[in-house]
């Protein structure tokens, strides 16, 4: 069966035919490093990791080159450094390390190359000089700009034409532009901004030229796949095509693959709306595979709605799978082998939701205890970057006492994941029937629900907690002051205050 990919350029699903099967090449736009990656940034990391794994499986790992760049000079980076009063180099290096930690956490393989923009300035200058010499670019007020009307096919990826772009342009277009749709290749640096010497004066590159220069350096003028988020189609990828094809008189990329947008609880993610979710902040509550399973449960081209319910459902699924695998040792599962069924779903435009449904069926088949079926199930999960941990490590992750007396109905998913054979409905029933005074001990809790199978699958549950809320109020004449403190008891009569609110503030 052939690999089929949806090509944004043709708006159709096409058979993937590499330029050279012994040298399959893919470029994906990576992060702009000024802050922690959010779940929207994580989606292309996972999507193209799946594609990277698939290409390696088909053509051999030694025959696939995956390039994912890092943009480490950009207006956003400069603004962030100024806001934080931090050196730009320190900020970018720190943020790159954050990104690497996040990528490892969600199970992404390292790309073959990870070029940084600041390390490829000479290549960018050379490419700009070529565009100027061919009269596709011009110099104005220390800026170098691409003449969009010189490229007759401008807009062929996004479907936009120049008249539409001009009509939709913002007010106050820079006076040095010949056309409103022209875009910057090189710009003068302001004082205290990163700067490099060039034939047009000290300055720095525009965003679009960075990817053109780095992809050409590592993959050649023409390569197989260019990928990224849907938000990059215009103007970034459109401009990459224009400048690269004009400079080299050659087709840029043969296939364009884009993942869909991410919303949070049905809304566009925004810091001002308080629904901005970073990968880093999820690490305290969920293992990385939970994030990965949640991401790939929606087809990569479709919009993804990020919800707590979806996260909890993924957690419950993986807990169940790892609990089952804990009954087998490594030697019993070492004969994992290729599975045509899981491959067929992935070859069909990376249909990961269908692949997950196949996994669920394979898990059901595993209940017979047939070790061959279990090995096949494990192999199939590994193809998606799942079930790579040892069951014992997964099941012992943050193994702490869960105080049954402090839970409410919103914690039903959590409770159901702790017990084997406990449905969500059963968990809700338990939580709805906790006595006001709570349970005296664990045995009292177990005995209260004789009709339910409360055999522990992992972790511990109890009736005590080391986290307390302390409320106090001071009354003096007409003055009233109140405080609420959250305290962690660490033993040996020591307590640690993790938060305190005075008078509601």
Q: What features would you describe in this structure?
A:
The protein is α/β, with parallel strands linked by helices and 505 residues long. The chain folds into four domains: 22-262, HUPs (Rossmann fold); 285-394, no CATH class; 399-462, Ribonucleotide Reductase Protein R1, domain 1, CATH 1.10.40; 467-502. Helices cover 38% and strands 19% of the residues. It has 17 helices and 18 strands. The strands form six sheets. A four-stranded parallel β-sheet has the order 4-3-9-10, sandwiched between helices. It has a four-stranded antiparallel β-sheet with strand order 5-6-7-8. Strands 12-11-13 form a three-stranded mixed β-sheet. Strand 5 and strand 6 (143-146) form a beta hairpin. Helix 4 (121-133) packs across helix 7. The longest helix is centred in the N-terminal third of the chain and has 21 residues, at 39-59.
Q: Based on helices, strands and strand pairing, what is the structural class?
A: alpha/beta
The share of residues in helices is: 25-40%
Side-by-side strand order of the widest sheet? 4-3-9-10
Average of per-residue pLDDT values: 88
Corresponding CATH architecture of the largest domain: 3-Layer(aba) Sandwich
What are the low-pLDDT stretches, counting only 5+ consecutive residues below 50? 167-172
Overall, the morphology is globular
| Radius of gyration based on Cα positions | 27 Å
Layout of secondary structure:
Layout: E1 4-7, E2 12-15, E3 24-28, H1 39-59, E4 64-68, H2 75-84, H3 88-105, H4 121-133, E5 137-140, E6 143-146, H5 162-167, E7 183-188, E8 203-205, H6 207-219, E9 223-229, H7 233-248, E10 253-259, E11 262-264, E12 267-268, H8 279-282, H9 288-296, E13 304-306, H10 308-325, H11 340-347, H12 352-366, H13 371-383, H14 391-395, E14 401-403, H15 412-418, H16 424-432, H17 442-447, E15 460-462, E16 467-476, E17 479-491, E18 494-502
Parallel strand pairs: 3-4, 3-9, 9-10, 11-13, 14-15
Antiparallel strand pairs: 1-2, 5-6, 6-7, 7-8, 11-12, 16-17, 17-18
Helix pairs in contact: 4-6, 4-7, 6-7, 9-10, 10-15, 11-12, 12-13, 15-16
